[in-house]
Amino acid sequence: MTTQDNRQDNRQISRPVLRFAPSPNGYLHLGHAYSALLNYKMAKELGGRFLLRIEDIDLQRSKPEYEAAILEDLAWLGIEWEEPVMRQSQRFADYELVLDRLDSRGLVFPCFCSRSDIAAKVAELGIWQLDPDGQPLYPGTCKHLSEAERRSRLASGRYAARRLDMTRALANAEGQFGWNEYSEGRELRTINAEPSLWGDAVIGRKDVPTSYHLAVVVDDAAQGVTDIVRGLDLFNATSLHRLLQEWLDLPAPSYHHHHLLTDDEGHKLSKSLKAKSLRQLRAEGVTAADIRQRVGLG
Q: Are 179 and 254 in contact (CB under 8 A)?
């Protein structure tokens, strides 16, 4: 593994690269507008590049009409991006290769458990630890299956997710590592990573050869992203991402986790909670300048 210091030195002599990476599983809302505009503003201020990536590994929920709406909304906001646009659904072969690399180092194991299986096992054990996403921490059900049992299950057509063996990954990591975090006022501090909070995290789903965590790490490196600006809800995910970056010898970007926009009840704006979309606001006569003013970037 390359040292973090060396990778930070390499980053300092490169032109800054920022990105906005939405998922086309619904329409953009004010929260997305804030993140996109903030990335775009920072790229301009730093004299850097601004990239757009479509994170569409969820093949069931991702729709072409949502992607088209994303491009339309961003253009309406006055945001320009470099072409071509990266689409994760076109990069499954790359993710598979990365999974194979981690597997060859003994860091990956197949998991045949469904969410209900995990919940039942957790209830049986009486251990109610949660990961940072609020899901029951994986109890290790498939971690110690014999190689023969794994082959048998796979041969019978059982679908398996692929999990990172967190114990092994941390035991072989080179000491403490972390990341550079910029505050709202651009003050810099060092954060120590705590990937163990995630337990044996899924890095390859049952339906596609990646997870959000793996794909975003691989793609940020492939696109040369130097500064990752994203919501505070992904702060804890950065610990897991830094561990993957260490094992894959990938650059360590700097991070800024911005505040989240909320509704009148204090809930984070989200598609699942039916936050009013930019398309709806536009239809009501709201202008792009109004949006920038609303999110504090006017």
A: yes
Q: Taking Cα atoms as reference points, which of 6, 179, 218 lies closest to residue 100?
A: 218
Q: Which residue has the tokens 């109004």?
A: 290
- Nearest one of 283, 256, 285, 278 to 39, comparing CA atoms: 256
Closest CA to 13 of 251, 255, 190, 181: 251
Distance CA 274, CA 291 (A): 18
Condensed to tens digits (0 to 9), the pLDDT of residues 155-195 reads 998 999 999 999 999 998 877 899 999 988 889 999 999 99
* Residue 253 and residue 227 in contact, taking contact as beta carbons nearer than 8 Å: yes
Q: 269 with 263: CB under 8 angstroms?
A: yes
Segment 32-87, tens digit of pLDDT: 999 999 999 999 999 999 999 999 999 999 999 999 999 999 999 999 999 999 99
CB within 8 Å of 262: residues ≥ 6 apart: 268, 269
Q: The whole model's pTM is what?
A: 0.93
Q: Rounded distance, CA 205 to CA 285, Å?
A: 42
